[in-house]
């Protein structure tokens, strides 16, 4: 492993160790935060007893649904928008400012519209992810070398075959960048809305535990969310890097 | 010690070896080189690509330290620090894009204790000398590559260096612009009386501009030969029509042909 | 695209969004939506109510303070990690990881640390905002063209002058892009913090209105937040493009 990787692990271990000591000595009181070792143990207990399995399943199935919707609709929309020049130009300022808007502020409105169920959460997560997919699809399509498209025409491929066999594979590394963001955003969207107002899911359980001063539940669940999202993102990041370097792009 | 007066820069056994990073073997880039630059002369260096020309310039500038040997400027040894009285012009566009042309040229002066009125006078003179007066308030992005390189030369000139080091200053310019910039460089050299050390890969540029031309070998770069051109001090680009110019260029190429082939071999085995 | 083209595009887009909104209102009806005109007139009415202003001021104060901390912290971290290669290599991926996790889950920790008040909101806003500012600053500082640094060395600048007169201005366009995104994320964080646990502010009003089923307030506040976020972002984007054009 590279030296920076080792250093990074040492830094993280050092920080966790410091927290452990501060909690054990009492500089951080247990009412604020239990020691990291205790959190890890509690998480282990929660996972083997299966106490929150329903909540965990709810959150991840909702996030997966929002993710799949964002990816399929996003890529399709990206291909269509790319083909229509005026639409693209009209939407450019929209894409440029989209992520400045607090999407979660629409959550109350969606609750009024659809009731307090899964739908508003999935819509929020979808709204967060879909634009990242569209923008990166457009970016990838912009970078398809013209010579490949000429090759497709020489081979007499129809537009759909061109898209499936030439354009999208050529744009894959950029699509993957969008997908990486969509994974993060669908988790952020689902857990965020569960947290703000909901009746189930990990976010709801964390908020519920907070309101009941139940640190033995709250901290392990926070740790779980962090571990899951960081490992998914790191994995996708490595895959993206591999794809890009294979093409000599990075 | 009349020799002292004439020798402006002296190099004795100058050698540069780059330590290999992460297990790669060390690279012997340069030397040993022995050379004396005379005060006020125009000295050019030609050599195959990768022969260590730029390393030699960085050593003279004090941007890079020698592994062995010694460099003296006006009798004082250079140890990897930038000496007062030395100016450098690089090949790359070194104009600061966030400053207008006037501020770019004045930038170096403002870091010294020179008075504001003196700065203004020097910058205005440099602007007019380089034909940049109409562009004083423009930004670099609005200027052509040749104009930007003039700004960089002007920025060096205002500091009134006694030794000017130029690292392929016209490398990014087209052939016609190069010839005209070369003429301007000759004019500045005559007017300032500074010693000029020019690195170039263009044989005709060296043959036209320099009093003496050092020919370097493929890596590790050594001086194979010093060619004296014997031009008059007030020459210009029209000397390219003379037979003597053709003979000098041919002689440089005789020396360089074999070295360039070696250098191509080196770079393809390295890749 | 030229400047006027961009303005026209934006205008067409705004009109299209308003039309879409109106059509949606006709479909859904009064139970859950208000028309653009009703929303606008209620927003004006809300702004005239004295009881609304403390909430607006609370959010504004929290946002301003959060932005200050986000920028100061982001620039300090970004400059330090950008100038120190090894430190940057070690910490940058950690910042990227922090960016990608659902930070809402960290909010209870901030609430326990800072207590249920404005400071927790400020900390949460700053937590969102400082990450892009640091990440962009790290990259900006690393990508300063080496020739500028070489020129600085030849001109014998000391380290302080080198940073203030060369590194910072050279990195400015890129740093500004980070500030622009940091601005947006700080606002998102601040509002999000208010939506969860708070007794004051726009986010609080928004959540409170769900219980009261007050569609007017929900529409008006969402409208205000979106208009403010979008127009500020548009303004910063215009400056951003100007800065990048010079290079």
Biggest β-sheet strands, sense, barrel of chain A: none
Give the biggest beta sheet of chain B: 6 strands, mixed
Helix content range of chain B: 25-40%
Q: Tell me the number of strands of chain A.
A: 0
Portion in beta strands of chain A: under 5%
In CATH, the topology of the largest domain in chain B is named Rossmann fold
Work out the count of structural domains of chain A. Answer: 1
Instruction: List the domain count of chain B as a whole number.
Output: 2
In CATH, the architecture of the largest domain in chain B is 3-Layer(aba) Sandwich
Uncertain residue ranges of chain B:
none
Kindly report the name of the CATH homologous superfamily of the largest domain in chain B: P-loop containing nucleotide triphosphate hydrolases
CATH architecture verdict of chain A: Orthogonal Bundle
Task: Count the DSSP helices of chain B.
Answer: 8
Most extensive interface: A-C, 52 and 61 residues
Radius of gyration of chain B: 19 Å
The neighbouring-strand order within the major sheet of chain B is 6-7-8-3-9-10
What is the string of SSEs of chain B from the N terminus onward?
HEEEHEEEHHHEHEHEEH
User: Roughly how many Å is the radius of gyration of chain A?
Assistant: 22 Å
Shape of chain A: globular
Beta-strand content of chain B: 15-25%
How does this structure look, described?
- The complex is a heterotrimer of chains A (250), B (271) and C (247).
- Chain A is mainly α and 250 residues long.
- Chain A has a single domain (35-246), classed as Orthogonal Bundle (MetI-like fold), CATH 1.10.3720.
- Helices cover 82% and strands 0% of the residues of chain A.
- Chain A has ten helices and no strands.
- In chain A, helix 3 (53-83) crosses helix 9.
- Chain A starts with a helix and ends with a helix.
- The model of chain A has no long low-confidence stretch (mean pLDDT 88).
- The longest helix of chain B is centred in the last third of the chain and has 28 residues, at 243-270.
- Chain B is of the alpha/beta class.
- Chain B is globular.
- Chain B contains eight helices and ten strands.
- In chain B, strand 9 (212-216) and strand 10 (223-228) form a beta hairpin.
- Chain B has helices at 2-6, 53-61, 101-110, 116-129, 145-157, 175-192, 203-209, 243-270, and strands spanning 7-18, 27-38, 42-46, 68-73, 76-77, 86-89, 163-167, 195-199, 212-216, 223-228.
- The model of chain B has no long low-confidence stretch (mean pLDDT 84).
- Chain B has two domains: 40-66 and 76-85 and 163-270, P-loop containing nucleotide triphosphate hydrolases (Rossmann fold, 3-Layer(aba) Sandwich); 93-160, no CATH class.
- Chain C is an all-alpha fold and 247 residues long.
- Chain C has one domain (50-246): MetI-like (MetI-like fold, Orthogonal Bundle), CATH 1.10.3720.
- Helix content of chain C is 85%, strand content 0%.
- Chain C has helices spanning 3-28, 36-48, 53-83, 85-100, 107-114, 118-142, 146-154, 159-196, 202-212, 215-246.
- Chain C is globular, with a radius of gyration of 22 Å.
- The two termini of chain C are 18 Å apart.
- Chains B and C meet through strand 6 of B and helix 7 and helix 8 of C.
